[in-house]
Every structure is written in structure tokens, then in C-alpha cells.
Design a protein that fits this description.
Cell Cycle, Chain A; homodimer
Amino acid sequence: MDFFRRDPPKTSAAMAKERLQLILTHEHQGNMGSEPDYLPALRQELLEVISKHAGIDLNEVSVSLERKPDKEVLEVNVVLPRHDAH
Amino acid sequence: MDFFRRDPPKTSAAMAKERLQLILTHEHQGNMGSEPDYLPALRQELLEVISKHAGIDLNEVSVSLERKPDKEVLEVNVVLPRHDAH
């Protein structure tokens, strides 16, 4: 802790952040055993689209994939610095 | 009700359906007024990626966009017939 700090942290306005969250749920009735062939490629491409448009590196993206017997849930979380017009 | 039906309805296994749901949430602290420039294009491209991989027409996709002061939520719902290997 630095009690003598001269430059206070940026205000919340200046530090305003954007968050992007994408959740893709694939749900199936019955016991089909395997997920459809297209699902892994779909997930990958969704990540790439987010990365491209939001101008971020895929390494900065938090991704989790949860598999349950009747569904798979992809969750993508991105925290972006506030955007400036460009 | 037809008690004399000779061909029972397909079993649940045969009628198994897949559902795809995509939710994209853009959240921002502070009052930035407008959404980032890239967001509409990002939404559109996510829809196209889903449509392409799942082999469906964009017209078959149910899409809603909810705008609140601090966030926008895109919700996409697709019901697919059960998949067969192709």
C-alpha cells in the first residue's frame, strides 16, 4: 500500500470496461452419444469471429466447455478495455 | 385418440431433436451511450457461422435483440432435426 501515491487510480468513468460473453448451448433429447460433426468447427469459428471483430487475441479469451449427458455448453468471456471510436 | 392405430408414433429416440442456443451479451459499465461499431457486424457474422455449420437457413433461426441501458443481449435459438452422419 502506498499512502503517498500522487496519481490516484483512474476514475471509474475512465476505466469503464466492456464485457462480451458468448454462450453456445447444444442440447439434445435422447441419448445420441456423440455431438454432431459440425460442433467443434462451429465453436472454433465463433471464437475467431469474436476475436476478429472485437480486435482481441484469442489468448486473451477465457473459454470453458462443459459436457453433460444431454448438452454441451461453450462459454466465452472477454473483458475489453473501453472502446474508442476508430 | 386412435386406439386402433397400427403405426405408433416414432419413439422419442427416433424423434430426438437438437437445439442450438447462442446468447451474446455485451455489457458496459458507465454510460457510453452507443454500442461499439463492431457489434452489429459481429452479431451478423455469428448468425452466418451458425447457419453455415448447422446447415440451416437464416430464416429458420429465431433471433431476438434486447437493449438495456447497460447491456445488449442477442439471443439466437435454432431447433434442428436430429442429425445424421453425412
